[in-house]
Amino acid sequence: MNSTLIALIVLLAYLLAYRFYARFLGAGVFQLDPERATPAHTLRDDVDFIPTNRYVLFGHHFASIAGAAPIVGPAIAVIYGWLPGLLWVVFGTIFIGAVHDFSSLVVSLRHRGRSIGDLTEDLIGRRARNLFLILIFFGLSLVLAVFAIVIGVLFRQHPQAVFPTFFLVALAMVIGILVFKTGFGLGRATIAGVLLMGAGIGYGASHPMGAGISLNLWIVILLSYAFLASVLPVWALLQPRDYLNSFALYFGLGAMYVGLFLVHPRIVAPAVQLHPAGAPPIFPFLFILIACGAISGFHSLVASGTTAKQVDRETDASFIGYGAMLTEGSLSTMAVLACTAGIGSAALWHQRYATWGAMNSLSHKLSAFVDGAGGFVSALGFSLDFSKTLVVVIVVSFAMTTLDTCARMLRLIVSEIGENAGISILQNRYLASVLAVLSGLALARIPVGNVSSGMALWPVFGVTNQILSALALLTVSVYLYKKGRPTLYTLVPMVFMLAVSMSGMFLKIAAYWQYRNFLLLGVGSAILLLEVWLVLESLIIFREHRNGRKVLPAEGEISS
After folding, report:
1. What secondary structure letter does DSSP report for 452?
2. How crowded is residue 228: how many other Cβ atoms within 10 Å of its Cβ?
3. Predicted local confidence at residue 443, as pLDDT
């Protein structure tokens, strides 16, 4: 099968989905209104709430959701063959993931920019809100721990990525001050920032640093940075960093696709492998391994936790929420093709993917993508070494973006839990940020067997991520039901994701019991219990409104 033809078909499908399906959802289901005031205006504080140019916010949102997961997930899941993963990426992105991201953003806009967990109190009930906030806190703590470990591993394996990553942090802060405080034009700032970022990548490629730093010290350094990112105003670091980061990914992703079209390699992997040696069953784990890039509950937390507080006009939600997810889908599509067509030969592919154990280390998972994508980029005339360095820097930079966005959202969740419990001191963003970062550090440092708990909890993180996606869709469905709007477009994906997440967690719990891993057994059981409880709470709401449905107040009343 020719990879170029597949890429063209997939990209065309994404364009058509944005043109027709996103427009239908915005106008026909959610009835977006450009004149309705958004929380960025009504609650403006220039720290979390601030009206933002839609293109800047698209870059911030896209960079926040497009971490390493859209690459790592497909790089693992192609062990089942290229076709199942590709189909899930394409159809999952269009009909489930993009709907999930977009709808979470809209519902948060209609509820004063509150997080998807917090607003369950209005839609389902106070008890449901408490359950959801606890689940989100645990899920975000897992993200913080896992990504700190992932980035630390990448820094140790690819020290050439260290300088460009931290240079971008300093550059972003300068750009933020220039644009927000001095009125320096966004266009000029963008050109200067992109050129300097490129120079930083070039310098770092030939000047590796930090190779002697231990993984544990990297974790502390990275989480210290996450604390800084969580307390600074969004214009000072997160917005400009993510905005500049997005150009790196645009360039890198564009270069990969152009290189793919120039080389037009054939896919060397088998189309389907239903029972690869040692791998978990394809259902439900294909739909768990590939989360970001098809659907990810983490995205609903980004959409409602930070992005909704910065949307200038309500109609921008389609471009930002639905459009950014389609762009991430194109990244996951590239990951599938890089690991199945860019890898060289069928013999090399089978060598890497002969058994599940052969893909057991993180470096092996990422190296398949780095080798394949680097080969595509080199077709543009760059050296293979430079091309692979560029790919590594992109992966690290976006994993860092996930880390700092997660820390900020976790800080907001801690404050919401404190508000709900009447603990006013947790409203202090510095204390809330300290608690958020310490939760991630605790998970990253507690040993489980011969590996850190952060890496051992990766499967639980994957299942928890899909549980959050199912519950976000459930919350949106309750909202639409109460508003008297069509629920089919969120309810069907929700049912599917509930089936995936519940069956996946049940299988993991059974495995933890078999191997007497009581820590993960307890964690997994608690998460599954929370999910079942929240579903039951929602079913009660549906039953209460089945006869003589009660509707929510007018939209203006909610957002005021």
Report:
1. E
2. 17
3. 80
* The residue type at 105: L
Measure the CA–CA gap between 206 and 273, rounded to whole angstroms: 41
**Eight-state DSSP code of residue 553:** P
Token pair for residue 177?
């001050």
Measure the CA–CA gap between 486 and 552, rounded to whole angstroms.
Answer: 14
| Whole-number Å distance between alpha carbons of 88 and 286 | 8
- Indicate the SS3 state at residue 554: coil
Please say if the pLDDT value at position 513 is more than 50: yes
Q: pLDDT tens digits for 9-48?
A: 999 999 999 999 999 999 999 999 999 999 999 999 987 8
Nearest CA to 520 out of 462, 460, 449 is that of 460
Contact 248, 193 (CB under 8 A): no
The token duo for 261 is 């079209």
Its sign, for the CA torsion 5, 92, 306, 165, is negative
Q: Return the residue matching tokens 């770092």.
A: 204
**Strand partners for 451:** 448
Q: Are 40 and 314 in contact (CB under 8 A)?
A: no
For residue range 363-376, what is the model confidence (pLDDT) as tens digits?
A: 677 788 888 999 99
pLDDT in tens, 289-301: 898 889 999 899 8
Provide the pairing of β-strand 451-452 with 447-448: antiparallel
- Residues 366/71, Cβ–Cβ less than 8 Å: yes
CATH architecture group of domain 3-559: Up-down Bundle (1.20)
Tell me the whole-structure pTM to 2 decimals.
Answer: 0.86
Strand partners, 266: 2
- DSSP structure string for 65-117: H-SSHHHHHHHHHGGG-HHHHHHHHHHHIIIIIHHHHHHHHHHHHTTTT--TT
Count of C-beta atoms within a 10 Å radius of residue 28:
11
H or E segment to which residue 448 belongs: strand 447-448
Element (DSSP H or E) covering residue 451? strand 451-452
Q: In 3-state terms, the chain is what percent helix, strand and coil (to 5)? A: 75, 0, 20
State how far the alpha carbon of 364 is from the alpha carbons of 347, 355, 391, in Å. 16, 12, 15
What span, in angstroms and rounded, lies between the C-alpha atoms of 157 and 151? 10
CB distance 444 to 340 below 8 Å:
no
Burial class of residue 98 in the structure, from the number of CB atoms within 10 Å of its CB (0-12 exposed, 13-18 middle, 19+ buried): buried
Q: CB–CB of 136/115 below 8 Å?
A: yes
CA angle 352, 497, 309 (to 5 degrees): 100
- Residue 52, classed as helix, strand or coil, is strand
CB 7: neighbour CB atoms within 10 A? 21
In the block, tokens 């907001």 appear at: 412
Q: How far apart are CA 479 and CA 550, in angstroms?
A: 11
Both tokens of 416, joined, read 């919401």
In the block, residue with structure tokens 């006013």: 424
408: number of Cβ within 10 Å: 26
How far is it, in rounded angstroms, from Cα 555 to Cα 558? 5
